[in-house]
Amino acid sequence: MDAIRHYFLAQLAEQEAEAARHLGDGYWTDSRTGRNVGLDELQAIGAMKTIALDPRPGEEDAHIYLSRLLADLDDVASRFRAAAPDPDGYGIATIGTVARRLAAFDSDPSVRFRSAP
Q1: DSSP 8-state secondary structure symbol assigned to residue 117
Q2: What's the rounded Cα separation, in Å, for the pair 20 and 107?
Q3: How many Å apart are CA 32 and CA 100, to the nearest integer?
Q4: Residue 29 forms beta bridges with which residues?
Q5: 3-state secondary structure 38-79
Q6: What sign has the CA pseudo-torsion 80, 81, 87, 90?
Q7: CA torsion sign, 75 to 78 to 83 to 89?
Q8: What is the radius of gyration, based on Cα positions, of the chain?
Q9: Running DSSP on this structure, what letter comes out for residue 114?
């Protein structure tokens, strides 16, 4: 389960680095609203950081633990859609990217040994 946790955290770090790149590049700022998509990405990352990473009772099996993390990401996405301003969809896409990569961790063992896509 430590491998899953570390992979999840690596995905958050990768997304955070991408958000920082977006914030530093005017290309990612809407000329009409002045909003940079990096702000939405950072909001999404903050929402994902609220997920409890310690295994809960009954999560001794890695598949059960991973399934719970994916369900928690689904919940985060639902709350984010309902509450966060995300006019261009980059925040929700950030959550979706992390969820897809985490799901791939279970289905493709080779993903565990390479850096984030």
Answers
A1: -
A2: 30
A3: 32
A4: 36
A5: HHHHHHHHHHHCCCCCCCCCCCCCHHHHHHHHHHHHHHHHHH
A6: positive
A7: positive
A8: 15
A9: S
Structure tokens at 5: 């946790």
Q: How many residues does the chain have?
A: 117
The answer to whether 37 and 88 are in contact (CB under 8 A) is yes
- Kind and range of the H or E run holding 25: none
Is residue 37 within 8 Å of 18, Cβ to Cβ? Answer: no
pTM, 2 dp: 0.90
Contact 84, 45 (CB under 8 A): no
Question: Which string of b and e fits 61-98 if b means at least 16 CB within 10 Å?
Answer: eeeebbebbbebbeebbeebeeeeebeeebbbbbbebb
Residue reference for tokens 């009954």: 58
Q: What is the tens place of the pLDDT at every residue in 31-70?
A: 888 999 999 999 999 999 999 999 999 999 999 999 999 9
